[in-house]
What does this fold into?
Amino acid sequence: MHDFVKLLKAWRLALNERVINSCALHRQQASAMRLKYLGLIIVLLVISTRAEVKVDLGGLWALTNANRSISIPATVPGGVYTALQTAGIINDPYTEYNDVLYRWVAYDNWTYTRTISVTSKQLTSKNVRLICEGLDTISLITVNGKTIGRSKNMFIRYEFDLKAVLKEGNNTISIAFQSAITYALDKWKAHKAYDVPPDCPPDVQHGICHPNFIRKEQSSFAWDWGPGFASQGIWKDIRIETFDCAVIRDVVATAIPFTDLHLTPWSIQVTAFFELGASVSCSGILQADFKVLNVSHSATVKLTKQKTNFSMKFQVQKAKTWWPAGFGDQQLYQLQVSFSNGGRSSDDQDSSTKSLLFGFRRVELVEKSVTDIKNDAAGLSFFFNINNQRTFIKGANWIPADAFQERVSRPRLERLLQSLVDANMHATRVWGGGVYEQDAFYEICDALGIVVWQDFMFACAMYPVDEEFLSSVKSEVIQQTRRLASHPSIIAWSANNENEVALRQNWYGTANNFSLYQKDFVTLYINTILDAVRENSKLPAVSSSPSNGPESEAEGWVAQDPTDPHYGDVHYYNYNDDCWNTSIYPKPRFASEYGFQSWPSLETLRQVSKAGDWSMDSNFSMHRQHHQNGNKQMMDQITRHFVDSTSRNTTQRFMNRIYLTQISQALCYKYETEHYRRLQSTLIDGEGMTMGAVYWQLNDIWQAPSWASIEYQGKWKMLHYYAKDFFAPLLASGVENNDVLSVYVITDVHPILNGTLNISVWSWASQTPLKSWQFPFKQHVRQSAVAYYVRKTADILSEANCPKREACFLTFQVTGITPSLTSPLNPYFLTSFIKAVGLKQPKIAHSVLQIEGDTFSIQLSSPAIAPFVWLEAPGLQGRFSDNGFLMVEESHTVEFYAWTSTTLEELKQSLAVKSLLDVYNDEE
Ligand code: BMA
It folds into this structure.
């Protein structure tokens, strides 16, 4: 212990004790009120002498393991793995096999300690509280040796009373964590009544057992794309708060337009949730201000132990509407909510303020009866009306950006979310096996116009429903709903990921006892989670993803077929069939998950591996591949359409295969996503009217093969460049059925007057089309997909003098006159690249210019058609305007946008350009 005291003394100077005092804010607010409410002047003058005071306990703490063999400084917020790495005790946990080699860290029990100095003034407050925004996960909290509380759920904000334990001067606070692994195991052992499966992740994931017995990030025990670290730590802010009467803990603001047709005026409901502390009752004035809109509303509030929240309703006559990206602006207004209490003595006064950026938007999830042409009932629709517009949701699923949340900075989130928008998406689903993301995540989504489907953190498992578990979940759901509900970006809640379908399809051997697990399902997700959500938010909430919505409810919440395309959302994965064949895909109302794996670039893998690891079947590669048969599935998909690389150089072969997996992945998603978009206006035997495509998955948690379109650290895979095109707001997309080609025009927001659909037939051997047609069309309504061109493929090819399918390909492009828009040139392959004839090895030349600052222009020239032109700038951070494309013309310009300061020389040095036939270049 002596060592600690010494350590602590040495670090004291570095301890970061920022005092955050809301007085200043409060004074501003008070003066605004004086002007508006003259009658309240006298009351208000008494107010604002004292406010809630917060002492931030972030900064350096002492960290020690159970037997005290390790004592190091640790940054808070943070976790033990990164603290050990910073202290030089372990290397990068992501390198090689360290996820398994460093498992000892997660088996140990770690204690965080620090001193806090307290003034006598602080102790005179009626309430002195320790507020822990997030403890990961099982811990015992002591102050000066006395227990003040415990934590068991990483998603809960804990508050502990310090009044009786703090003394003037130095105090020692300790948070002693227990291994999440041993806790989960103990809980599982203690649950004797019946199994709550699955017990352990599949071996291929090198994971940890029983994550479902602990309220912690489920994927931190390993997943099919991620490592099992099961860290410990103080992962969110921690502070001491003093106040007398009451403080505002949460604010939920909801805006609903007065009429269904117009988006203004709005009726606003603001609910403040208070922490009353030791007071039996307390009253004051609650005020809500939209300063910029000149709207202010206040009410007198009387709080008691029984009633600690207060709602007020008022009107906003005019406000600009908040829109998803691509549909309009993301207007945000600051809403300040303040509570002022005037007590009897001048010492007995509090003020507390919460500020949020609010957006006015209307969300409706429409699940209404669908009738097909024969007028037969065909299930229910499932689409979002956003601001009264039926909106096709275009997005990708979000997983935690790192196994160590302390490494997820705002700039990293900004880069990832900006990349999502740059690829013409406007939606993400925060998937239920990760974490409720940090505030910055939702703030960025608000600012960028990304709508969020928010799962509650339950995924791919059955869960216990004992009283302790349920009450912890209830607090979690209430807190998280209140924290997130006011963000304009949030448009829907889902109680869990895949737990309805897992139960119905007997993924974990629960069939023999189905009704027991069904009862538990209802207890947890319906009676606990959805009930708590609905009490705190008016947004749409579904019982699972995928589910059948009201049809699931009618079937006791576990439908016969939760993936029924006639209802709700579906998840669809098929690794056995040819992904180019769009008839394999369902025709659902909404596709909330689908996908295929690829390998990340060698540039990314290099960070955590060495030369001997660079082959698809190395021990390292097998260790990183957490999806059973993942590599085989990728190779099966590749070899349907491409010749595999047989390069003699192992590293070259690995690089070629990485490139092929990325081509194959990009094409699979292109086929599947365009299929969903084409179906948005069509009902086929009661199926279709698909109104969402949210692919699996946007981002990576580490450097490994996965479904992600963006590699760990932000590099775009080919898929992400393809997403930019297949999600383009205006798109021409083709499909063949029984040798008949239909070409659709797909739009999101823009109606098109006098458009032209351009169709060309090309020979692989020539850079000039064999034949091109222009088909004018008069009017195309927004958010629709219409086939303007339907013709037998053989007739098209023969009119173009194409000798056979293998010799040719098609391109589609649509141009709009009003508004003037051009869709990306969309290639349509008539044959696999194994059979394609006429392709010549192009030598692509390039030159680079600096346009301005971090934007560079790259001129490419090629003497032949070049498929899958791929540009890379290893070592440089940035993205290209276009990549992985089919280069049909002799010259083509691509831009490079550097994310960090980059010189022309650096780009020239690093830039490499290749295309498909280069894969076979070094082979005999
Ligand atoms: C779905 C997701 C994840 C998983 C993905 C790929 O099941 O919900 O659990 O990572 O598929 O297998």
